[in-house]
Amino acid sequence: xxxxxxxxxxxxxxxxxxxxxxxxxxxxxxxxxxxxxxxxxxxxxxxxxxxxxxxxxxxxxxxxxxxxxxxxxxxxxxxxxxxxxxxxxxxxxxxxxxxxxxxxxxxxxxxxxxxxxxxxxxxxxxxxxxxxxxxxxxxxxxxxxxxxxxxxxxxxxxxxxxxxxxxxxxxxxxxxxxxxxxxxxxxxxxxxxxxxxxxxxxxxxxxxxxxxxxxxxxxxxxxxxxxxxxxxxxxxxxxxxxxxxxxxxxxxxxxxxxxxxxxxxxxxxxxxxxxxxxxxxxxxxxxxxxxxxxxxxxxxxxxxxxxxxxxxx
Length: 313
Prior knowledge:
- It is built from seven helices and 19 strands.
- With about 325 residues, it is an alpha/beta fold.
- The chain has two domains: about 5-120 and about 240-310, FAD/NAD(P)-binding domain; about 135-240, FAD/NAD(P)-binding domain.
- It has a five-stranded parallel beta sheet with strand order 4-3-2-8-19.
- Helix 1 (about 15-30) packs parallel to helix 2 and helix 4 (about 160-170) runs parallel beside helix 5 (about 190-195).
- It is elongated and about 70 Å long.
């Protein structure tokens, strides 16, 4: 026998910083709110060994600790946060939006999508093993941990070049491993990188990340010589871009751009009335603090939408 449908004022899909911030604001504004998260509450932020740039924590804070605090705050204000509940279908083409998970169906007049992104992996040995111990997918987040150290940036696109430029002001040496055939870079970014005295560009493919407790070096297959070389580094930044986790959302009729990013206006509204989006799935600031701000904005506009509909009824 299937579980009965649960009714709320707003459903939030995704329990990362954007989703939890939205839950805090929705609950504070008096809306019956549920958050559905496929993994653990906190999303990718939970994996961050330390977040140094979130306001209010002058000594920094572990990602898992920040996520736990946000989740507790949402619960205290009345939101229901359900982890390990994967969404399998959305129906947003009616006044009442329905979200189906592997466990039950939820309904509400408003929906906030905060599904985040999945970073592209290089799929080499050591990548998963040293995550948080030298391997990172966010140069802006974790670059300051590698001041005056040798680091590698993996990727041949614009994101990788920007990450390399950012790290040149922090790291002693930055090795840019193109990984694939070099992509076309807009403007003069590549020239700026080449002029940096502490940058080495290696045309080749990353084939391994080595170390014991932490990263010690990388192995690269050079494109021209077709030989493997080893470079000593303390940090490895994977900059291959992100893949928005929006396939179900797109299938439901919510518009995305060519890269799969949800299209929203400045009020976090999508093309579907009553459906809002926030956080990394919109490909905005891609930071915990910007995700939190977007989540708060989405919640405020969702609240206004729900209350307006109540008056009309």
